[in-house]
Design brief:
Length: 275
């Protein structure tokens, strides 16, 4: 569920810089084409080829039926896709970057780097590490060297690109002298403090998201004194309809009488039918 206080931080940036950033306030934002066929914002939803819908659940991309050439992070979308900050949407070759809140700066010291109870996980969502999950209970190296925890086998990738360190407040991303740095929630960075939900991208297509177990993520939202357990909501029972109850009661004697008459008829049939 999306925090309403942070919704207005989401922006849609056109890579061709022909339009200003669009603040994705709650509601529907339509994308169409101008007279030259270039993707642009349109006010008439009937002419839209796609639309971004923002609500408390997040950001949804809906594609008009029959539209081709629309991709999210290099994957074709035909109908609908849920987006996260840092995703790249391509429409007719034009990139639209979904910018989330900028990451927090990395702490200057390592005072919180040694964390005994680390719950963070780095999950690959794009590139050669897609589908892989890596616990962040200790420092992890990202690079081209085969011994790196996150191995990215590309000639242009740095041998030691960055290091991910567990911290009391999240996960610290530290650049190790790479050429291009990293991208977090759509923002180029060198060093940053990552939190659950942040998306970090190395070299455009190697995408990862920082996650935490649901139980841990929900613990901070529970009321004080709940003992770490979510409150149990009472089950509402629909009140009985007095009219329906009376109607059912009136039908019961007739059903009993019909059953008795049927039983008697079957008895007579058995007695006289064998003679």
């Amino acid at each position: 569920m999306l925090d309403c206080a942070r919704v207005n931080i989401l922006r849609l940036r056109f890579s061709n810089h022909e339009q200003a950033d669009l603040v994705l306030a709650p509601g529907v934002h339509a994308i169409g084409r101008d007279g030259g066929g270039t993707p642009c914002l349109v006010g008439d939803a009937a002419t839209a080829i796609a639309q971004f819908c923002v609500d408390r659940r997040g950001v949804w991309l809906q594609v008009r039926e029959g539209t081709r050439g629309l991709h999210v992070n290099g994957r074709s979308v035909r109908r609908m896709a849920m987006l996260r900050p840092g995703d790249a949407v391509y429409v007719d070759g034009v990139e639209l970057m979904l910018l989330g809140p900028p990451p927090l700066p990395a702490p200057d010291d390592d005072s919180g780097a040694s964390v005994q109870d680390a719950h963070m996980v780095l999950r690959g969502i794009g590139g050669q590490n897609h589908g892989r999950s890596l616990t962040l209970d200790r420092p992890r190296m990202v690079g081209r060297l085969r011994e790196c925890d996150i191995w990215i086998n590309e000639p242009a990738f740095a041998e030691r690109h960055a290091r991910l360190e567990p911290h009391a407040d999240g996960v610290v991303l530290r650049d190790l002298g790479s050429e291009s740095g990293s991208v977090v929630n759509g923002h180029p960075v060198r060093h940053a403090l990552l939190r659950p939900g942040d998306q970090v991208v190395f070299e455009a297509q190697h995408r990862f998201v920082v996650e935490a177990p649901v139980a841990v993520a929900m613990a901070s939202d529970l009321p004080a004194g709940s003992g770490g357990r979510p409150p149990i909501a009472p089950v509402a029972e629909a009140p009985a309809d007095p009219g329906a109850v009376r109607a059912t009661a009136r039908r019961i004697p007739w059903l009993l009488l019909a059953a008795l008459l049927l039983a008697g008829a079957l008895s007579l049939l058995l007695i006289y039918g064998v003679r």
